[in-house]
Amino acid sequence: MPADFSGDASFNLTYVTTEKAGEGDSKTWNTDIVNIFVNPIADDVNLTASSTITEDVVSKIDITPTLKDTDGTESITGVKILASTVIAGYALYADAGMTTALTTTDVNGTDYYVLTQTQWENGIYAKNTTTHDADNNDNFNLTVDYTTTDTVAKAGNPNVSVSDTFTHTHTVNIQAVTDAPDIQVDDTTTTTATNVTISADNKTITVSGDNTNFTVKVNTTSDDKDGSEQVQRIEIHGVPKGVSIDGATYKGHTGIDNGIWVIENPGDMLLNNDGTFTDIKFNILNGSDFTSKRYYYQNFYKRCKYMMKKWIL
Asked: Rounded to 5 degrees, what are φ and ψ at 308?
């Protein structure tokens, strides 16, 4: 019989009798039709092992099953997700527009997300419920039950149906997103006040001589405050010739008086509720070349660039 066959079948059974030697050679044939019924067995399904979803973006979880038995007698009759395997901080939806949130159903004392056929055929969607916070979660495994039913006709009797439920694990990988930081000047100080003038808002510094310095405290903040992001590198562009920055590495000039200095791995790196604070000390050396007022410090920080690194706790 072919694979996955179930239902009615028949075959011919022929009996042969023979006479013993010496009593006259003769044979007799008698043929009967034998009818049998092969009970159906519900088979497991095919499905993808994992899906990847993105922080702060509604993302599809592909738990759509397909049949292994494709002879036309089987169908998928139920799909449900064990609610306790959906980690806290995530909600499930029936559509990418998040207009229909999935709700749980008590099944014999256990909460499940019981899906409709449209939902399991089209896939479901997930999104973190607190923005900028999903990257603090680990990947998680959904427990999904698939029920299949095999139905066949039986001669002279009602159809025979057999159902079975198969449990699968579907891994959901969380793809973190690095959020754009914001930098603000928090304070500006100097130990050479006779040659350095600082504006009331701490953002404009006027230098009137060499061998002076000023220190700018900058505060970097991010919408993501769960501690999963950190500042890895600060680039300062537009630094005039003859000016150095403590704790930074000179990377060269890209144009007339357009110096680039880089601070790698600043002391305060972790972007949490109050962000990070970095003191950047500028030293104006002998022979410094301020060719125009565009080198006021306010202009420096409008051109600061940050490189961020994401990590998962």
From this structure: -110, 155
